[in-house]
Amino acid sequence: MDIKQYKELEASFIEYLTQKKLRKTEERFTILKQICVFPGHFDILILHEELAKNNYHVSKATLYNTLDVLLDAGLLVRHQINSQSFQYELRHQADNHIHLVCNKCGSIREIKNQALKADIAQVKTNRFMKEYFSLYIYGICSKCRYNKKKGNRK
Q1: Which residues partner with 111 through β-bridges?
Q2: d(CA 67, CA 11)
Q3: Distance of alpha carbon 141 from its chain centroid, rounded?
Q4: How far from chain centre, in Å, is Cα 52?
Q5: Which pTM does this prediction carry?
Q6: ∠90-10-49 over CA atoms, to 5°?
Q7: Partners of 137 in beta bridges
């Protein structure tokens, strides 16, 4: 993310915090900066580890609260990949894509499909305004499939 995009995101966050009469804390802005470094999905553990690597120690409660604020501000999107885990990504990176989720190792790969995007854009929804979509396809990744075949040969 370039500096201009970050400044726009930060300005939007400041506007949201002001509107909701929430405090503009150093922790919130440090967490936002760290999130902007991630190229795609992240979870709470990855975020916590990266902040700690940068000598910024913050409680997981603060992380969860800040993520909730960023979600409510519309700056972040939460994906429930399976029943136990959530992953997050910046809203502007989440536009209209497909997640391929491995049931074995939990890896996630994103693909963009213009034909599918056009098909979904044509779907009529009553009393609902679509903003973006995210489709999940569950299966087994090639690495896990290879390891399974290799294990069966022994």
Answers
A1: 98
A2: 17
A3: 20
A4: 20
A5: 0.77
A6: 55
A7: 100
